[in-house]
Amino acid sequence: MNENRRPWTWEETVLAFELYCTVPSAKVTATNVEIIALAQAINRTANSVKLKIQNFKTYDPNYTKNGRVGLSHGSKLDKKVVEQFLNNWNDMSISAANIKTALHIPDSIDIPDAQTEFVKEQTVKVRIGQSFFRRAVLSAYDTKCCITGISVPELLTASHIKPWNVSDDATEKTNPQNGLCLNAFHDRAFDRGFITVTPDYTIRVSTHIQGDTGKIMAQWLTNYDGKKIFLPSRYTPKQELLEYHNDVIFLR
Question: What is each CA distance from 196 to 140, 150, 182, 225, in whole angstroms?
Fold first, then answer.
């Protein structure tokens, strides 16, 4: 059957939506290796997968809130997938992983063998969620630290604003709006409360280290006090989660 006449299935659409969430908009091209890999796995062209991904913009309020519009070719199935998973990130990442398993599509989640089946299952779910969270956050920030602009992926972390261990399983742990893209140094400083980001996206440095006037401390921390972070192209951090970090984690 001609690909153009073969309807997209629910499973294929979910996998395309996962890529929509984790591939930077500027890299949604027919030459992107992740798009090519999915296209080969579901027997479609890379161009058709690219167009499918672009269709989701029509139904994504993160994209349309500033008056932008997506392509006009979005289907009812596209809309249904977006509505089901857009704010249900954990279920989406697990569903995508299960679909990959059913379709024999390789995944990068590696689980040690020496575990009980229950522990394996829970570990798999956690690692799937963490993997999705990292890819979605780095994608939203175009793989750049939101404080310094550092763009080396190996030096970047998807930092939880509200820590993983106290985040709600369904709405916060894998929600990209609970994330900041930070380099490893500022990730540690943020995690320990030496810096925070206010609900108006301003960086604040703790008074616990403001007294350190050393050149290195100024270059890496105190000089950023009062500056704005670079905002992501989507998944803008939730203000209530930033308030949590300000009130609970930040050292005043």
Answer: 19, 18, 12, 10
